[in-house]
From TrEMBL:
Protein's name in the database: Protein p34
Membrane-spanning ranges: 12-29, 35-58, 78-96, 116-135, 156-174
Pfam families in the record: Cation_efflux, ZT_dimer
Chain ranges of the Cation efflux protein cytoplasmic domain: 210-287
Length: 302
């Protein structure tokens, strides 16, 4: 419950942080007329819209299971992340459109140092906020919050590149650097948008846990499978912050239902304790269903 509240609060305040950064970046563009700073401000608009979508999705994902959604609403966060990826791509295309106009009629920036100072302050706010979002998102397994944090961190990196490039443009007087930097920003944003969409689609398609986590799950099961004969057909999938774990447990055919249930409870409790927000389903089978020869000292995986 505490993690749920933390994630929802961060998603809510991300909206206002995004609006503040947007105001600063638009002010930087307004005083300079720089197309590169315009591209930076345009991405901040996407940040605000994405923050709104993430806040909505996180609220939905924490709703309890109901009759129509017996497995919960965890995947709602992936829809938010996909939307954010699409918005990132749209922003990149709008930037490229603006670059075309600037390339045809390049102009010298007005009040460059003031604009760069304002933009630098906005980037510092973004960097601190993105670091907080990413750390909390990973701790509480929130895809929407993680996508939001990574997107903002991308904004920080591109803003740093724009800042360095525009300083060079001011010093050298090379006006073509302004639209050139905007193109680089747009291409980077396109790549990030594609990455966000790809990872979110994987979540919607029930991707399994990474290999390292699978081995950890196997170790937990083996350490708590005393009294069983074999474990096979281990399957996992990730839905938002929840890890679904399913496997078959082979026991002696003569074992009572109560004794088999004790083993299942022990394994389930161990998994849920060491893998927070996990949901465990165990299929108990008689020894005739074993896939390996029975009689080894340890409980084997098939």
């Amino acid at each position: 419950m505490e993690g749920e509240n933390v994630v929802q609060r961060l998603a809510f305040w991300s909206i206002f942080v995004g609006m503040g950064v947007l105001a600063l970046k638009y002010a930087a563009y307004h005083v300079t007329g720089s197309v590169a700073l315009y591209s930076d401000a345009l991405e901040s608009i996407v940040n605000v819209v994405a923050a709104l979508a993430a806040w909505w999705a996180i609220r939905v994902s924490h709703k309890p299971a109901d009759q129509n959604h017996p497995f919960g609403h965890h995947k709602a966060e992936y829809f938010s992340a996909v939307l954010e990826g699409v918005l990132i791509v749209v922003a990149a295309l709008l930037i490229l459109r603006e670059v075309w106009s600037a390339w045809e009629t390049p102009k010298v920036m007005e009040e460059p140092w003031l604009g760069l100072a304002i933009n630098g302050g906005a980037s510092l706010v973004n960097a601190l906020w993105a670091t907080l979002l990413i750390s909390r998102a990973r701790r509480h397994k929130s895809p929407a919050l993680l996508a939001d944090g990574k997107h903002i961190m991308t904004d920080v990196v591109t803003s740093a590149g724009v800042f360095i490039g525009l300083v060079g443009a001011v010093i050298t007087g090379w006006t073509f650097l302004d639209p050139l930097l905007a193109v680089i920003v747009a291409l980077n944003i396109l790549w990030q948008g594609w990455t966000v969409i790809g990872s979110s689609v994987q979540g919607l398609m029930d991707v399994g846990v990474p290999t390292e986590e699978t081995m950890r799950i196997r170790d937990i099961i083996s350490a708590n499978a005393g009294g069983a004969l074999e474990v096979h057909d281990l399957k996992t999938r990730i839905a938002g912050r929840v890890t679904f774990i399913e496997f078959h447990l082979v026991v002696h055919a003569s074992m009572s239902v109560g004794d088999a249930h004790v083993i299942c409870d022990r394994m389930e409790n161990a998994l849920m304790e060491q893998i927070p927000d996990s949901s465990v389903v165990i299929h108990v089978e008689p020894e005739e269903e074993a896939k390996l020869p029975i009689g080894t000292a340890a409980v084997p995986f098939a």
